Amino acid sequence: METAETKSFYSDKLKRAMHLLLFRRGKMPGAREWELKEKVGKNYQQVLDQLNQLLSELDLEIKKVNEPRSEEMGSDAGHASLEEARYLVALKGTLGLKEAKMIGWRIDNLAGLSASISYLVSKQGKAPREEIEKLLAHKFGRWKAVTLADIFLRTGYLEEDDAGVMSLGWRTRSEIDLRALMTKMAEAKV
Q: Are 167 and 120 in contact (CB under 8 A)?
């Protein structure tokens, strides 16, 4: 009788962890480490390991990403100082062309994102915003280049410091295989 209660209790933790990882509560996907500790319990790492095994069959995996320190020190100030790691569900393999059409991005925006990321990688991960906008303006026009740069910043694929220097964002580091992207870019015929 006790094993049935333990099993259902553990499956409740799996459900809770999955809900935290999949459903957005704000602009960023996934859940912070302190949220998982609070909602799932101290053994959240074991729960994530078991959940990762289940997701592996679906070509998905749980990734841990260290996010930049948040500037806001409101009610979450105590939690923000504890952990700055975020867990999210990401694709393990690659998407086919048909699946890529369903992710919600236009193909020209994806091309701009890959060009921006490739440019930043070729510049050791940092470049002035003006250079990124100039690169994008060459193909898309000035007004769209500024808009695309803002979209990439807002979605977390790129980051910008106070001096206007752009770098790779946390989503780029967690979702994109940079080595494979650079191989594809090198193989492309321009």
A: yes
Q: Which of 45, 63, 93 is the endpoint of a domain?
A: 93
- Domain range spanning residue 41? 2-93
pTM: 0.68
Q: Which of 90, 77, 82 is nearest to 37 (CA)?
A: 82
Kind and range of the H or E element at 89?
A: strand 85-91
- For Cα atoms 169, 175, 180, give the angle at the middle one, nearest 5 degrees: 105
The neighbouring-strand residues paired with 88 are: 63
pLDDT digits (tens, 9 = 90+) for 52-79: 998 988 888 898 887 655 444 444 444 4
Provide the CATH number for the domain around residue 142.
Answer: 1.10.10.1210
> Which region holds residue 127: left if phi is over 0, alpha if psi is between -120 and 50, else beta?
beta
Tokens of 101: 């059409």
